[in-house]
Design a protein that fits this description.
Elements lengths: L4 E5 L3 H12 L3 E5 L11 E4 L2 E4 L8 H10 L4 H4 L2 E3 L2 E7 L4 E5 L2 H12 L1 H26 L6 H19 L5 H8 L3 H8 L18 H7 L3 E3 L4 H13 L3 E3 L4 E7 L2 E7 L4 E3 L2 E5 L2 H5 L21 E9 L2 E2 L5 E5 L3 H10 L9 E5 L12 E9 L10 H17 L2 E2 L7 E4 L1 H7 L31 E4 L9 H19 L18
Parallel strand pairs: 1-2, 1-13, 2-9, 6-16, 13-21
Antiparallel strand pairs: 3-4, 5-8, 6-7, 10-11, 11-12, 14-18, 14-20, 15-19, 16-17, 17-18
Length: 510
């Protein structure tokens, strides 16, 4: 089918995955992106001559990429070098306490017992059993499948899944669920943070998001060369399949004629005609008419609540005090205040939780001199309406340095050792978003059905990326790319569509 032309708008993970699978089918695929190179949110900043991942840093759900490679008659371990982490994350509190969670669940349970006592260790084991079961029923009924309405979702869940949801209370928030599961407020705080993986507040996110804990417990890997190496790998494989890349190329309109997509136009007035278009960008850009008025009806007209944005610092500096691991969290008291500040008051949190990715670890546990750090705090997605003042950013930096110092870590921020990004910066990179990094916030039980699916109401237009089903994050975005490719394939009619993840090799999933 080389005469079937597909244009993929956006060279993020989802766009690259769609392009790769569709070119493997024999379609003529062109990928365009307004940036100079592929990557989307998987981006790096250069500090003192060293590349530092400044976007997603956690590689989980390896099976998504294993199955993708298998569908292309490839093997992931021959395309990327992945190393499993023994420590999933290291957690610190300003009261001086700390807790590591491990890839070995028994080691985690022992650590929780030493941290909070035998009773909490038992509750932790029960929590793990619950999240494992929840992940099992949501995998095939939600994550791998095209978006369903509530009746379709309930039918896909089946009796076992429905019984599980009834027991957990689907209307509960993640926070209220954790209040019932743990007595130690630090453990509630630790597991509540998983809501932020979807850019959401644990005070409003549904209890079902606890399954993200299981995603991490199933394994976290590092990618040799950084997360940028994943982009380089996907781009290389696309080119080997004959995919054409045009970067930079600013798509200013998705062309619709007689109710059907016929291609895209660039800001240079050039038109790229196509039989199908896969839009791998935030759906807010469609809603706001940034891709032309006809494309607005691809998504609901009502704008949902935006997800979290962030302030980030890519730093190269020596650290002193604490021994960091790859992924480190620094918690302060009054966790709920952070989300009141962001979502209700639209301001930087006064006592932010600090995420620190030490990108030269764990392989270098000794004193390594200057090391590469990504420091991140959550922020409101209002970069289109206001710019954070230097005073607000200075106060935030002081809070960050104070919080980590209370936990025992010391490092310096100087004008020359870091690159800082704010919601305004992210809004410029991803227009229409205000800097929201996860699409819409996942607030309320029904929010999981309100994200657009791969199949848009406009014939020939398909959607992928973290703002569409099944949600944000590198593996979920990759899954959305696979779902978009499957939808395109089904629309061709001449090729029988198969469920995403079904492979001739009978590969299993966690």
């Amino acid at each position: 089918m080389p005469d079937q032309r597909v244009v993929v708008v956006g060279a993020g993970v989802a766009g690259l995955v769609s392009a790769l699978e569709l070119s493997h089918l024999g379609l003529n695929v062109t990928v365009i992106d307004r940036a100079d190179a592929p990557g989307g949110k998987l981006h790096a900043e250069t500090v003192d001559g060293h590349a530092i991942d400044s976007g997603p840093t956690v590689f989980t759900m390896r099976w998504v990429f294993d199955e993708l490679m298998h569908s292309l008659d490839l093997r992931l371990d021959r395309e990327l070098t992945l190393t499993p982490l023994s420590v999933l994350a290291r957690h610190f509190w300003t009261d001086g306490s700390s807790l590591d969670l491990f890839a070995d669940p028994l080691a985690s349970e022992s650590a929780v017992e030493a941290f909070a006592g035998a009773d909490e260790a038992l509750r932790f084991r029960q929590f793990c059993d619950h999240t494992r079961e929840l992940y099992g029923v949501m995998d095939s009924s939600f994550i791998r499948s095209q978006l369903k309405n509530l009746p379709g979702f309930m039918a896909a869940l089946g009796p076992r899944g429905l019984s599980l949801l009834a027991r957990m209370g689907p209307m509960k928030t993640l926070w209220s669920s954790l209040e019932q599961r743990f007595t130690d407020p630090r453990l509630r705080q630790l597991f509540a943070r998983y809501a932020t993986y979807c850019g959401s507040s644990p005070l409003q996110a549904p209890a079902t998001l606890s399954l993200i804990a299981q995603v991490e417990m199933d394994g976290v890997w590092t990618v040799e060369g950084g997360m940028q190496e994943l982009i380089r790998c996907l781009t290389r494989l696309c080119k080997e399949q004959g995919v054409r890349f045009i970067c930079p190329a600013h798509c200013d309109q998705i062309l619709v004629r007689d109710g059907r997509v016929v291609g895209v136009s660039l800001d240079t007035q050039e038109q790229l005609l196509a039989d199908r278009v896969v839009f791998n960008g935030d759906t807010a850009a469609l809603r706001e008419g940034l891709l032309g008025k006809p494309a607005q009806r691809a998504v609901a007209s009502a704008a949902p609540q935006r997800s979290l944005s962030a302030v980030t610092w890519c730093i190269r500096t020596p650290t002193r005090g604490l021994r960091l691991d790859r992924h480190n969290l620094f918690f302060q008291s009054n966790y709920a205040d952070e989300f009141h500040d962001i979502f209700e008051h639209q301001r930087l949190p006064r006592r932010p939780t600090v995420y620190l990715c030490a990108q030269d670890r764990p392989s270098a546990q000794a004193d390594i001199g200057a090391e590469r750090l990504l420091c991140l705090v959550n922020a409101p997605a209002n970069g289109d309406v206001s710019e954070l003042s230097e005073q607000a950013l200075s106060d935030c930096e002081s809070q960050v340095l104070s919080a980590v110092k209370h936990c025992g870590l010391d490092f310096e921020l100087t004008p020359h050792n870091h690159v800082r990004n704010t919601p305004r910066h992210f809004h410029r990179r991803f227009p229409g978003t205000g800097g929201a990094l996860y699409g819409q916030a996942t607030h309320g039980w029904m929010s999981i059905f309100s994200r657009p699916g791969a199949i848009s109401p406009i014939p020939g237009l398909f959607l992928s990326g973290g703002s569409v089903h099944p949600g944000p994050g590198v593996p979920m975005a990759a899954m959305s790319g696979r779902l978009a490719a499957a939808a395109v394939r089904a629309s061709l009619g001449s090729i029988k569509s198969s469920p995403v993840g079904a492979t001739s090799g009978g590969m299993s999933t966690p």
